[in-house]
From TrEMBL, chain A:
Family as reported in the entry's similarity comment: Belongs to the sodium:solute symporter (SSF) (TC 2.A.21) family.
GO molecular function per UniProt: acetate transmembrane transporter activity; symporter activity
Keyword annotations from UniProtKB, A to Z: Cell membrane, Ion transport, Membrane, Sodium, Symport, Transmembrane, Transmembrane helix, Transport
Entry membrane topology: Multi-pass membrane protein
Subcellular localization, as worded in the UniProt entry: Cell membrane
Organism: Streptomyces colonosanans
Region annotation Disordered: where it falls in the sequence: 272-294
Alphabetized PROSITE patterns for the sequence: NA_SOLUT_SYMP_2 (PS00457), NA_SOLUT_SYMP_3 (PS50283)
Transmembrane segments: 6-25, 45-69, 75-96, 117-134, 154-171, 183-201, 303-327, 339-359, 392-421, 433-454, 460-481, 488-509, 521-542
Gene Ontology cellular-component annotations: plasma membrane
Name the record gives this protein: Cation acetate symporter
Tagged with keyword Cell membrane: yes
Superkingdom, taxonomy of origin: Bacteria
A single BP term in Gene Ontology: plasma membrane acetate transport
Automatic annotation (TrEMBL), chain B:
Basic residues bias locations: 17-27
Name of the protein this chain belongs to: Uncharacterized protein
Keyword Transmembrane attached: yes
Transmembrane parts of this sequence: 61-83, 89-109
Region ranges (Disordered): 1-32
Source organism per UniProt: Streptomyces colonosanans
This protein's UniProt keywords: Membrane, Transmembrane, Transmembrane helix
Presence of the UniProt keyword Transmembrane helix in the record: yes
Length: 570, 126
């Protein structure tokens, strides 16, 4: 790709982010401004900001990449991300806003009057937040590497620095403006090129094989393998090879590969005939932590799909950067209306990534081989249009991708830093918040430099699973069930969230199991969410004397409309 | 006490409700004059019963919309696994699920707000 345009586009997005953030800094004066923008953000601005924050790199690049590699099953991700907001609206939105707490630990403490539960919730916020930040940084690194050939960690470092600067400087008020701005930026950056790409597809005679399974090459295609990899073939394949396959050298002769796994050394050139199915690189055997979730999916497809649905539907409500946004609404009713607007905004956005995924299957199928299918969105304009127009569109997409990493990372950093400042660092106050920001970003940055990458959307899916099995039970039972006790809440979070976390860690560490166990660990939500709920209910029922004394009053505050409550207090 | 007290006419009256309501503007009941309001504020058993009834109606609204969502989405993976028509899967997952979700959300918000309005009316005895 021509970096003459992409680099200025990324620079422009970064600059605009800093400038809009600085604008927020001028009007961000009090501590309340800092954390919750003084709770004066109207539904429209707030909904745009929430959407801007929520549409992460996983949405912008990851979904198209996953769809490209694994087919339409992966469209469950955007559906789940959207439905998660619907579930959040149904059970949590208004009462959460009325609870009057800033963060999830605040909610836990207000509801259960227990420091221990508060600390536990804080620990899970850190865990989920860092799990979610990691792929953002890695995705930014990938984007910059694909665009400019820069070393992989550079993009992550740039994102980290910009985010720490804006968040530490302006807090929530400036983040709100930044994110509202970035929603529109992302929508433009994905919709305008999509329009041109679809026109180009039309001009190409509108081939429809994008929807066929499996993906096939449409014409003679030469693929150069840049990194040695294992190729998994579900059926025999005829290719022309120059290089080393399974330890044998070939020089431009036809090779018949049987179904199964083949090792291909770097530098090998494979020429595929038209109509040949596109094989998939098997990342599990590539070493590192990228033991892809795909293998678990291959073995138990239905289980994996339901696990994904459950994790995304129930996990959204517990994401720290999502929750913190609800406190910026002026009242419970506004929080509800905001959520409906968010649903419409993100639903509209999610119509676009599948377009890229489908076109990617037609025009860039070999990306599944190279293993960086996440780059499909970035490369498509070049592949399909070419010339100056493609460079400009590519630059637009690159800018949008960076906006995606920046906005989600700022929201997460904000939430994680809030917890660090309030519960970990000794004193409170804005100065310590800035220190917390630094710390919140340093950990995932270090981790992203140390470990390799899962596909972006998969890694985000793991964060959802942990959130769904720890915070979802806490929030839903905390809001709707009178008999919840502090020991019950703690036990439930530990059993559900803790086991999901262990499963996720085992998967990311490249746990080499196969079959049922691997599927269970790679898609934990289906067992860990019920486990969390069940433990929370049973332990609460076993400790009836520990029901906090103020429960009735607190639940009344959660559910009574504000117009009644203000008077009750007066 | 004077003996003729029984013969004197005593006018017993409360503040006329409607006028008082109007004159207080936005917060007509700041004094907690009416009963349910006071019951809730003072957290009596009766007050809890009022809050509980609100919670129950809100939970019912949430659960019924959630049930629609589950019925809409739950069978789809099974359906796709049996039909194996990827074109259908693209259409449903890529597009068709979003409009119903937004409509469900709007329906729920309207119902939840109506529940709250009804509750306020009940409590304020209007």
């Amino acid at each position: 790709m021509n970096q003459n345009y992409a680099v200025p586009a990324v620079a422009l997005v970064v600059l605009a982010t800093v400038l809009v953030g600085a604008f927020g800094l001028r009007i961000s004066r009090t501590t309340s401004d800092f954390y919750v923008a003084s709770r004066t953000v109207g539904p429209r601005l707030n909904a745009t900001a929430i959407s801007g924050e929520y549409l992460s790199g996983a949405s912008f690049l990851g979904i198209a990449g996953l769809v490209l590699v694994q087919g339409p099953d992966m469209l469950w991700y955007p559906v789940g991300y959207t439905a998660g907001y619907l579930v959040l609206l149904l059970f949590v939105a208004a009462p959460l806003r009325r609870s009057g707490a800033y963060t999830l630990p605040d909610f836990a403490e207000a509801r259960l009057a227990s420091q221990q539960v508060r600390r536990l919730a804080g620990a899970f916020v850190l865990g989920v937040g860092w799990l979610y930040l990691l792929p953002q940084l890695q995705g930014a690194g990938l984007t910059l590497a694909v665009l400019t050939g820069a070393p992989a960690p550079l993009g992550g470092i740039i994102v980290a620095v910009v985010v720490v600067a804006t968040v530490a400087a302006g807090g929530m008020r400036s983040v709100t403006f930044v994110q509202a701005f970035q929603y529109w930026l992302k929508l433009t950056a994905l919709s305008v090129p999509a329009l041109f790409l679809v026109l180009a597809w039309q001009g190409d005679g509108a081939p429809r094989d994008a929807f066929a399974e499996p993906v096939t090459f449409r014409d003679h295609h030469v693929v150069r393998i840049d990194h040695s990899l294992h190729l998994r073939l579900s059926r025999p394949l005829d290719v022309t090879a120059t290089g080393t396959i399974d330890g044998r050298r070939y020089t431009g002769e036809p090779v018949d590969l049987d179904a199964g796994v083949h090792r291909i050394e770097r530098g090998t050139r494979l020429t595929f005939a038209p109509g040949a199915p596109v094989p998939t690189a098997d990342h599990g055997s590539n070493g590192g932590m990228s033991s892809s979730l795909a293998s678990g999916r291959r073995e138990r497809p239905l289980y994996a799909t339901y696990g994904l649905i459950l994790a995304t539907f129930l996990g959204t409500m517990g994401l720290p950067h999502v929750v913190v946004r609800f406190y910026t609404s002026p009242h419970g009713g506004a929080a509800r209306r905001t959520t409906v607007a968010v649903l419409a905004l993100i639903g509209g956005f999610y119509l676009l990534p599948p377009v890229y995924g489908a076109l990617g299957r037609l025009y860039a199928p070999e990306l599944t081989l190279a293993g960086d299918a996440d780059a499909a969105v970035l490369l498509l304009p070049q592949r399909m249009i070419g010339g100056l127009g493609a460079d400009l569109l590519g630059a637009l997409v690159a800018g949008g991708a960076f906006a995606a990493f920046l906005s989600t990372a700022s929201g997460l950093t904000m939430a994680v830093a809030g917890v660090l400042t309030q519960d970990v660092l000794p004193a409170r106050g804005v100065r310590h918040f800035r220190l917390g920001t630094l710390l919140a970003m340093a950990v995932p940055l270090a981790a992203s430099l140390l470990v390799g990458g899962l596909p972006v959307a998969d890694a985000v899916g793991l964060a959802f699973a942990v959130s769904a099995s720890s915070f979802c039970p806490l929030l839903v039972l905390g809001i709707w069930w009178r008999r919840l006790t502090p020991p019950g809440a703690a036990a439930g979070m530990l059993a559900g969230g803790g086991s999901a976390f262990v499963a996720v860690a085992a998967t990311m560490a490249g746990f080499t199991g196969t079959g049922t166990l691997h599927a269970l660990l790679a898609w934990p939500a289906l067992w860990s969410v019920p486990l969390g709920f069940l433990t929370m209910v049973l332990v609460s029922l076993a400790t009836p004397r520990r029901v906090p004394a103020q429960t009735a009053a607190i639940l009344a505050r959660f559910h009574l409309p504000e117009e009644l409550r203000t008077e009750v207090k007066a | 006490m004077p003996q003729d007290s029984s013969e004197r006419r005593v006018v017993v009256s409360g503040p006329p409700r409607r006028t008082r309501l109007r004159s207080r503007g936005r917060y007509p009941h700041a004094s907690g004059y009416y009963r349910p309001r006071t019951e809730i504020a003072e957290q009596t058993t009766l007050g809890h019963t009022y809050v509980r009834s609100l919670m129950r109606s809100q939970l019912r609204a949430a659960l019924s919309v959630f049930a629609v969502l589950v019925l809409l989405v739950g069978p789809l993976p099974l359906l796709f696994a049996t039909i194996r028509n990827s074109g259908l899967q693209w259409a449903v997952l890529g597009f068709c699920l979003y409009p119903p979700m937004v409509l469900l959300a709007r329906w729920y918000v309207r119902r939840a707000e109506r529940n709250e309005k009804d509750f306020v009316r009940l409590v304020e005895d209007r």
